[in-house]
């Protein structure tokens, strides 16, 4: 229950205080959204450059190629290629998904869905965005340094990431940028956790919160605990690079004393595995809610779903070693990590129970947010199942560092999260901007994206199983990989189609902002608290703090009257 | 709607609670950062054939012990600040506050002396893993101390400027002192684990 | 002008790649590329590679089974319970005994059918095979591998049987092994982390500076096979391939004899670069 009631701030007057240095969580959410979409574009272009090089090596990339690489006639050079896949991974994870799902939806949805006027610490919130902004400037600046940006993969393992392996300031700037973006996320996490604990509307117990909030809340908890681990790792590598310490130095270059590069891998993956759950939890929550809303019935086993989010968060730290099977840890550690990795599929299975159980015997409306939510169930099913091969040590011996891994994590991290994110954008568009996006073009966007997604990532699964290892500039150098050329081409063509489809989203989005149909207060006819206020949400959110009397998924109750099939959370629960 | 007075009271109480939660989460985050450093230390120490490795000499305990004394005194005096604020003794709070702040700055000073002494003995940060650990730990700790000193300065200035010292929320004092004592505990752990054992 | 050609050739390659990836590219049946090749890994030439392949296939069949069930649920429910067909949703929170039992039983089936089974099989394979190092009395072929940016160096002990001596056979990017005999590797790296990957043997292990990692297998077929580096190691990571040539035991002995003679003749004892090896651990 709310521990206190926040004052309604007076409306900001100046341009700067309204749009740039705003304390309003909704404005900050939009700032994160714009930044995230911008970086999604940059990361996407990098992906196209990578795919082009893999399918058509030696051929100039159309139009952009001549602009970016005039000295090679438009062909991506090998060192730039390394930079591209490194920055693609970094940007997509930290600068696209994190701001859109966590910064954007987290900031926008939490106060509105739990019934309060703003985050617990509005100033901290604003700082969180500006730390992010500074971090993105640092990251992008590395692209303009003489020796280029980081090029050791987004995981940046020492000793390649130390000074002798990656000379130049680019790699150091990468670690600095990650440290700052980590700080930004930790500040955000402190805000989200405290807000959910202290500012829920009167009557809203934890299990009356929508599952979107559960997902974001667990994400914030994981962020607060595990981002500092990455921060410590980054700090230690910065010490190694800038001050000459020897934490991770080994091999011939360790002239004054030797450290342990594998320690970095442990530290990185202690962060890294919870990170993948950080990225997917908001999308899981959004999907669970959307399926309920558009099947017009309560979320199936909602409490169990919320608890399995907690379980997965707790288990996430215990499984990190499955990223390191090929580093030959002790047999006991190896076997333990495999067994624990198997157990983490149990909470994921509960999610499928929730999703399928929710649409079972529903009355399903296939609006665009629902299509995206259903799409997530499909792609996450594939993604999760392909993970089983990688969690099993012996099959991982063959599949590690092949395109099979790339296909797996893109299905789970990219496909599921982005589809969930798009579903959320289409869904909350009316509340955020007061307009509806075109349903027709949203559906076109969905279908083409789905085709593209499955073409790209299933193709990668096959190519990886065929033996193509990752992070290579020219696969045709290997005679034995030439038989995979047609499949690589197919992946690239699918990727180009997928990329092109995102322009449909962009145009739809911008058109809606400029000329969109004004939205009603509750166009989707659902009962969570944000739909009890006008669209777009006024700056003070709630004129009067709502009092919550029932859960977030009260849809389809047969005893409801007046032709309504849902209840607002502020209404007394009608008994069945 | 309840009266303005009790609304304001519950507001302050609620905000205090929120601030305390935020401080707890921050402390958890900082703990994880230092925990990684200790994990690194454990890995290096337990895998090394001898400690200090490469036949290096142990660091002389005098300066680290002085540092420990100074930081413990600064925590003690800071605790005094807290109790003088709650008993509305402004002059004593100001005195204790200034003392605590000076001791904090002195602690940072002892760290610089430690680094200078190590360097004069030829132990630089690149001289192997033992030296790297000592420098790495102390740099990270000093970085956090700088942040803590800034916070404490802000609080002490508040004490100086306040008309009624009791107006300064107990909660604020408690949160800042939590951070300060946390860093003191981390230092003691560093002292014991890295220098003594 | 080139822009238009670019666009046209792009569309051309779209159509071409779509058709060629399903086998319609004008190649005759007798030509080498069998497009079903893309769905299988390279030929398994090792004694124990089939364990990995079998486990992969088992996992795949189980995955297909359960994913088909999910799809039946997903597509089926979406179709049957579309609001035009089903106006009234069934109001339930999913917390009744029947619901809990259904989900639990399905969950247990998945866990036992897939997770528990594959991890047990994999665990047994690890213990009994992959981490079951050959004993000295089995006389495995012993090879030291040094990975560096960007080449693979291999070392055989030479006639004296001791590593890092003048008579060692040292090759670059050229590994020769006998079939039907266990081979034991000790692997390290000179500079950054690499990974020693032989797809046809289904095995890889990281080559890490400051550590020695181990690998063993037994091969079954003579021929020429690729060795690749499977960990990002710098700009020319993609060029870091080596060749594995497997011989029948007789051919191997004759090659080894020749190589050892050559090593004794050409190895320069003054060349410090020769002594990158280490005492066999």
Distance between the termini of chain B: 61 Å
Q: Helix coverage percent of residues of chain B?
A: over 70%
Question: Gyration radius of chain C, to the nearest Å?
Answer: 27 Å
Shape type of chain B: elongated
- Overall, the morphology of chain C is elongated
Largest protein-protein interface: A-C, 112 and 100 residues
How confident overall, as mean pLDDT of chain B? 89
> Count of helices of chain C?
4
- Content-based structural category of chain C: alpha+beta
Report on this model:
The complex is a heterotrimer of chains A (576), B (197) and C (281). By secondary structure, chain A is mostly helical. Chain A has one domain (25-532): Cytochrome C Oxidase, Chain A, CATH 1.20.210. Chain A is 62% helix and 1% strand. Chain A is globular, with a radius of gyration of 24 Å. The two termini of chain A are 26 Å apart. Chain B has one domain (3-196): Cytochrome c oxidase, subunit III, four-helix bundle (Four Helix Bundle (Hemerythrin (Met), subunit A), Up-down Bundle). Chain B contains five helices and no strands. Chain B has helices at 4-47, 62-86, 90-120, 128-161, 170-196. In chain B, helix 2 (62-86) runs antiparallel to helix 3 and helix 4 runs antiparallel to helix 5. The radius of gyration of chain B is 20 Å and the shape is elongated. Chain C has 281 residues and is of the alpha+beta class. Chain C has four helices and ten strands; from the N terminus they run H-H-H-E-E-E-E-E-E-E-E-E-E-H.
């Amino acid at each position: 229950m709310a521990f206190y009631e926040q004052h309604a701030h007076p409306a900001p007057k100046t341009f700067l205080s309204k749009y740039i240095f705003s304390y309003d969580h909704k404005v900050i959410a939009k700032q994160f959204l714009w930044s995230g979409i911008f970086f999604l574009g940059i990361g996407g272009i990098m992906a196209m450059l990578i795919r082009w090089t893999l399918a058509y090596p030696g051929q100039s990339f159309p139009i952009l190629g001549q602009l970016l690489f005039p000295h090679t006639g438009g062909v991506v050079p090998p060192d730039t290629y390394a930079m591209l896949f490194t920055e693609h991974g970094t940007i997509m994870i930290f600068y696209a998904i994190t701001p859109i799902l966590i910064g954007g939806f987290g900031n926008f949805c939490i106060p509105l869905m739990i019934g309060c006027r703003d985050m617990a610490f509005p100033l901290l919130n604003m700082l969180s965005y500006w730390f992010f902004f500074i971090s993105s400037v640092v990251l992008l600046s590395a692209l303009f340094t003489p020796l280029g940006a980081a090029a050791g993969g987004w995981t940046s393992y020492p000793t390649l990431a130390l000074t002798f392996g990656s000379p130049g300031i680019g790699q150091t700037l990468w670690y600095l940028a990650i440290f700052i973006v980590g700080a930004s996320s930790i500040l955000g996490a402190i805000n989200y956790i405290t807000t959910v604990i202290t500012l829920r509307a009167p009557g809203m117990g934890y299990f009356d919160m929508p599952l979107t909030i559960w997902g974001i809340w667990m994400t914030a908890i994981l962020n607060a605990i595990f981002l500092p681990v990455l921060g410590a790792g980054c700090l230690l590598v910065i010490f190694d690079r800038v001050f000459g310490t020897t934490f991770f130095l080994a091999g011939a270059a360790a002239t004054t004393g030797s450290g342990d590069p594998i320690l970095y891998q442990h530290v990185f993956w202690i962060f890294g595995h919870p990170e993948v759950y950080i990225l997917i939890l908001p999308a899981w929550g959004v999907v669970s809610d959307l399926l309920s809303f558009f099947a017009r019935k309560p979320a199936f086993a909602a409490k169990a779903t919320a608890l399995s989010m907690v379980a997965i968060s707790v288990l996430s730290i215990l499984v990190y070693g499955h990223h390191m099977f090929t580093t030959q840890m002790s047999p006991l550690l190896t076997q333990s990590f495999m067994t624990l990795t198997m157990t983490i599929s149990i909470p994921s299975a509960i999610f499928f129970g929730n999703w399928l159980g929710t649409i079972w015997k529903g009355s399903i409306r296939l609006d665009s947010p629902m299509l995206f939510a259903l799409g997530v169930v499909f792609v996450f099913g594939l993604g999760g199942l392909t993970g089983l091969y990688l969690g099993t040590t012996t099959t991982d011996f063959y599949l590690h560092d092949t395109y099979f891994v790339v296909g797996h994590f893109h299905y789970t991290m990219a496909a599921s999260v982005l589809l969930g994110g798009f579903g959320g954008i289409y869904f909350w568009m009316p509340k955020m901007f007061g307009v509806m996006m075109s349903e027709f073009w949203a559906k076109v966007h969905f279908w083409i994206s789905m085709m593209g997604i499955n073409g790209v990532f299933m193709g990668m699964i096959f190519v990886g199983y065929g033996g193509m290892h990752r992070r290579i500039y020219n696969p045709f150098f290997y005679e034995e990989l030439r038989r995979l050329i047609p499949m690589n081409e197919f992946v690239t063509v699918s990727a180009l189609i997928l990329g092109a489809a995102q322009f449909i989203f962009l145009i739809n989005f911008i058109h809606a902002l400029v000329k969109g149909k004004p939205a009603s207060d509750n166009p989707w006819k659902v009962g969570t608290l944000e739909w009890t206020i006008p669209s777009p949400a006024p700056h003070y959110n709630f004129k009067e703090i709502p009092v919550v009397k029932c859960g977030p998924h009260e849809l389809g109750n047969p005893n409801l009257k007046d032709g309504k099939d849902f209840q607002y959370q502020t209404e007394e629960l009608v008994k069945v | 709607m309840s009266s303005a007075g009790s609304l304001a009271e519950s507001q302050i109480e609620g905000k205090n609670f929120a601030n305390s939660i935020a401080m707890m989460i921050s402390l958890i985050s900082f703990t994880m950062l230092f925990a990684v450093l200790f994990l690194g230390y454990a890995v290096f120490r337990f895998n090394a054939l001898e400690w200090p490795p490469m036949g290096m000499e142990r660091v002389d305990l005098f300066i680290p012990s002085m540092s420990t004394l100074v930081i413990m005194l600064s925590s003690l005096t800071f605790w005094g600040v807290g109790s003088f604020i709650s008993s509305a003794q402004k002059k004593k709070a100001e005195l204790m506050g200034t003392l605590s702040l000076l001791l904090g700055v002195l602690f940072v000073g002892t760290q610089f002396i430690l680094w200078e002494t190590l360097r004069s003995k030829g132990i630089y940060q690149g001289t192997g893993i033992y030296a790297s650990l000592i420098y790495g730990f102390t740099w990270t700790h000093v970085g956090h101390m700088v942040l803590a000193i800034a916070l404490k300065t802000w609080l002490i200035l508040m004490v100086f400027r306040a008309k009624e010292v009791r107006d300064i929320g107990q909660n604020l004092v408690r949160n800042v002192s939590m951070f300060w004592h946390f860093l003191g505990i981390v230092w003691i752990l560093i002292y014991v684990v890295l220098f003594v054992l | 002008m080139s822009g238009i050609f670019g666009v046209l050739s792009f569309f051309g390659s779209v159509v071409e790649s779509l058709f060629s990836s399903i086998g319609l590219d004008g190649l005759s049946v007798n030509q080498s590329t069998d497009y079903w090749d893309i769905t299988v890994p390279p030929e398994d030439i090792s004694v124990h590679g089939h364990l990995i392949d079998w486990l992969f296939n088992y996992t795949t069949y189980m995955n297909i089974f359960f994913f088909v069930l999910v799809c039946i649920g997903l597509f089926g429910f979406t179709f049957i319970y579309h609001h035009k067909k089903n106006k009234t949703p069934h109001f339930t929170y999913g917390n009744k005994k029947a619901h809990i039992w259904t989900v639990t039983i399905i969950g247990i089936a998945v866990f036992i059918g897939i997770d528990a089974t594959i991890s047990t099989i994999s665990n047994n394979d690890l213990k009994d095979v992959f981490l079951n190092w050959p004993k000295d009395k089995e006389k495995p072929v012993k090879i030291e591998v040094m990975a560096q940016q960007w080449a693979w160096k291999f070392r055989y002990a030479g006639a004296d049987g001791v590593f890092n001596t003048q008579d060692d056979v040292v090759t670059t990017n050229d590994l020769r092994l006998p079939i039907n005999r266990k081979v034991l590797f000790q692997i390290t790296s000179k500079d950054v982390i690499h990974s020693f990957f032989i797809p046809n043997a289904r095995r890889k292990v990281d080559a890490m500076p400051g550590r020695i990692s181990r690998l063993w297998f037994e091969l079954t077929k003579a021929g020429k096979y690729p060795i690749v580096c499977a960990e990002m190691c710098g700009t020319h990571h993609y060029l870091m391939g080596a060749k594995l040539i497997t011989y029948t035991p007789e051919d191997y002995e004759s090659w080894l004899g020749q190589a050892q003679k050559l090593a004794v003749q050409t190895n320069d004892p003054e060349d410090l670069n020769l002594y990158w090896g280490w005492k066999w651990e």
